[in-house]
Amino acid sequence: FDPRHYLGTHCYGFPKTGPHRLRFLLESVKDLRETLKTKGSTLVVRRGKPEDVVRDLIIQLGSVSAVVFHEEVRVI
After folding, report:
1. Less Cβ crowding at N or C end of the chain, within 10 Å?
2. Secondary structure of residue 15 in the 3-state scheme
3. What CA–CA distance (Å, rounded) separates 12 from 43?
4. Cα angle vertex 18, ends 73, 31, to 5°?
5. From the CB of residue 45, how many other CB atoms can be counted at a distance below 10 Å?
6. Is position 69 within any domain?
């Protein structure tokens, strides 16, 4: 979870993620984790800037051959 997604927007100061969206996200992540667990896998969930968290995970795992990501589209 990127803490920057819970700050105010650039133009009007409204929260990017309100309480209802946050609850939906948390429930979705919980459900995904439970589904993966039934299939013998797991889900790593971290809080922080993705550029820091991913770097730390790569260092922790030690044998990463690829990293795939998507960039959020910003409408100005």
Report:
1. C
2. strand
3. 34
4. 85
5. 12
6. no
Angle at 22 between CA 17 and CA 27, to 5 degrees: 155
Residue 29 pLDDT class (50, 70, 90 cuts): very high
The residue range of the domain holding 36 is 3-46
Q: Decide if 14 contacts 23 (C-beta within 8 A).
A: no
7 close to 13: Cβ distance less than 8 angstroms: no
Q: How many domains does the chain have?
A: 1
In this prediction the pTM is 0.68
Contact (CB, 8 A) for 46 and 53:
yes
pLDDT at 10 over 70: no
